[in-house]
Automatic annotation (TrEMBL):
InterPro entries recorded: Metallo-B-lactamas (IPR001279), RibonucZ/Hydroxyglut_hydro (IPR036866), RNase_J (IPR004613), RNase_J_2 (IPR042173), RNase_J_arc (IPR030879), RNase_J_b_CASP (IPR055132)
Quaternary structure (record): Homodimer.
Compartments in which it is found: Cytoplasm
Protein's UniProt name: Ribonuclease J
Family: Belongs to the metallo-beta-lactamase superfamily. RNA-metabolizing metallo-beta-lactamase-like family. Archaeal RNase J subfamily.
Function (record text): An RNase that has 5'-3' exonuclease activity. May be involved in RNA degradation.
Length: 448
């Protein structure tokens, strides 16, 4: 059977991931993501109303025109997890394919919400829920399997397409967490089995985000302990304490909520995306928040809550807000600019349970946000965080478990691929032979 891979998006930078695998007559698409920085760099761009081709020209969504060179029918569109760089283009591209969107329950729910907010296209693909450990047939000879992985968002999976020529394992995005705060540990046992059963692994496509970092990415339970240490150390402070993190990082939000209670403060979630992700996770029973946990997204209800906090005393509350990257319209940025009823005083604490995404726009905005908060007297606690992506020893372990015949580095720039290429070559792969360094819009033929 002919197996080929189309590397459509995310092979030149992090963002707008999209890869298609053709096995015989069947095609499966993995991820359909957005490159948010290409959108945010323009003022006032409302992607909801924009046409796909304009967004492709901006570099915001994958240029899927290469799909017309791929013979065969698309049988499934499979987003791996709910981050926007993996699902953000579904509302713009999925309607062009007569195929269901197959994803884990939390991811499907986020896809559903995104489709609902789309104003230009009516996306009507079937939405199919499939959990880690489950499989489905793709055509007559191929099978799709979801393997549980751990990442900075819940319910992440790595899809595997089993073909008669061997398995194609799509490894975006993950870290190796054996003690996650929510959900099951990464299923390394299954990866090792896949590496040894049948024809083994024909191809492994890998998330190279942190390939240049040595050692191992710590578990979420390490970030949780770090957070507990910081929050316990300021337990006796009698002024304002505010925290921010990735809204989609439900495990982190859960830790913040629990420790707020431990230090005698009432947690409250503020900001549109805080309400969206945490509300969704709670509705789907991924997390059990206290019954009286307030979640407010709309500007008016947020400002009303801030007023209540000022009236009842800042020392009684623990607002968890949007704005960890200094996004101009996010809650913490507005607080820094003095645009909310919440008044910061000298010595008030601001906790960033996040790392700045290393990208000039984020770095600039975050710098500005921190300076504005600092000018109002806030003390900053930064970097209370662990990454969601494998470092070098995780990459070593994955190659060792899967023993793939071919490897394709993804989710990075050419420069970002370099440390991964070094590691893979140390393990016996050779660039140009079985280690395929590629760009967006290419085809890699694996078997004939
Ligand atoms: Zn991700």
């Amino acid at each position: 059977m002919e197996v080929e891979i189309a590397t459509i998006g995310g092979y030149e930078a992090v963002g707008r991931q999209m890869t298609a695998v053709r096995a015989g007559d069947d095609v499966v698409i993995f991820d359909m993501g957005l490159n948010l920085s290409k959108v945010l760099i323009h003022d006032n761009v409302e992607t909801e109303r924009m046409h796909s081709l304009d967004l492709i020209d901006m570099g915001a969504i994958p240029d899927d025109r290469v799909m017309s060179d791929l013979e065969g029918d698309v049988k499934a569109i499979v987003p791996t997890h709910g981050h926007l760089d993996h699902i953000g283009a579904i509302s713009k591209l999925a309607h062009r394919y007569d195929a269901p969107i197959v994803a884990s329950p939390f991811t499907i729910e986020l896809v559903k919400q995104q489709i609902k907010s789309e104003e230009k296209f009516g996306v009507q693909n079937d939405l199919v829920k499939m959990s880690a450990g489950e499989t489905m047939s793709i055509g007559e000879r191929n099978e799709l399997e979801f393997v549980n992985v751990t990442h900075s968002i819940i319910d992440a999976i790595n899809p595997v397409l089993h073909t008669p020529e061997g398995a194609v394992v799509y490894g975006l995005d993950k870290r190796m967490d054996h003690t996650p705060v929510i959900g099951d540990p990464i299923d390394m046992k299954r990866f090792r089995e896949i590496g040894r059963e049948g024809e083994g692994v024909l191809c492994y496509i890998e998330d190279c985000t942190n390939a240049g970092k040595k050692g191992r990415t710590p578990s979420e339970s390490v970030a949780r302990r770090h957070l507990k240490d910081v929050m316990t150390s300021i337990e006796d402070y009698d002024g304002g304490i505010v925290a921010t993190t990735f809204s989609s990082h439900i495990a982190r939000v859960k830790s913040l909520v629990e420790f707020a209670d431990d230090i005698g403060r009432q947690p409250v979630l503020l900001g549109r995306s805080m309400e969206k992700y945490s509300g969704t996770a709670e509705r789907l029973d991924f997390v059990d928040f206290p019954e009286d946990l307030g979640m407010y997204g709309h500007r008016k209800s947020v400002d009303r809550t801030f007023k209540r906090i000022m009236n009842e005393g800042k020392e009684n509350f623990f607002p968890i807000v949007t704005g960890h990257q200094g996004e101009p319209r996010a809650m913490l940025t507005r607080m820094g600019r003095g645009e909310t009823p919440y008044e910061l005083d000298d010595g008030d604490k601001v906790l960033f349970s996040a790392r700045v995404i290393p990208e000039p726009t984020n770095e600039g905005q975050r710098y500005q946000s921190e300076k504005l908060l600092g000018m109002q007297g806030a003390r900053i606690y930064d970097d209370i965080h662990v990454s969601g992506h494998l470092r070098s020893e995780g990459h070593y372990e994955m190659l060792d478990a899967l023993q793939p015949k071919n490897v394709i580095p993804a989710h990075q720039s050419l420069e970002g691929f370099a440390p991964y290429v070094d590691l893979a070559e140390d393990m016996g792969y050779k660039a140009g032979r079985d280690l395929h360094i590629t760009r967006n819009g290419n085809m890699i033929q694996l078997t004939e």
